[in-house]
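User: Hey, quick favor. My workstation is busy. Could you predict this chain's structure for me?
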Amino acid sequence: MAVCMKAGKGYLILLTAVFLCAAAVWMSRDAVETVSEKNETESAEELAPRVAISFDDGPHKTYTPLLLDGLKERDVKATFFLIGENISGKEEIVRRMAEEGHLIGNHTYSHVKLSGMAPEAACEEIRKTSDLIQEITGKPVEYIRPPFGEWDKSLECGLTLFPVLWTVDTLDWTTENVSDVVRRGTEKVKDGDVILLHDCYASSVKAALEIIDTLKSRGFQFVTADELILE
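Assistant: No problem, here it is.
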């Protein structure tokens, strides 16, 4: 009887050991598969063509919040170049942009052609806007989009600002035809492009979200403009 009990205990210990071994192998396999899946996802993201979608002339009291809602729903970060004189009364919108991870840049105080101005006047346009944005977000402004795409490289304003232009112009400010804007914003887009729109028109907001949906369906990944510049 004692022999049988000893044998039974030995058998039980053996079964337990086998079970624990099998469980360890199973857990190890699951862990390997999880890591493998994570690596595959990261690799796919690294290989995906990247674009930046950018918006000038805001913030707008109605259309910018609608755009931010759409971007949040799609988990897309955009780049906004703000006009200083448009900020007053819309500080919460600017704060929301920053809190939701969007890049905020300078588009001068009153949308002036910097290359046609005296240096001190041009610098004042830039400084006032940068100061307003920093006052709201708590972060210094590092990027500027000069109106009309004209940047004077010799301009010294005591600020370190990187000019950001664009490679895809949707010409959204010329039309309310959403289909035309979407076509211009999607038909020839390639990896590394910066798309230009404006967040001060209802048609532009609608077109922007359609552009995002279309390019996402093609495998594009949306990033802020600085991620393309700093590569």
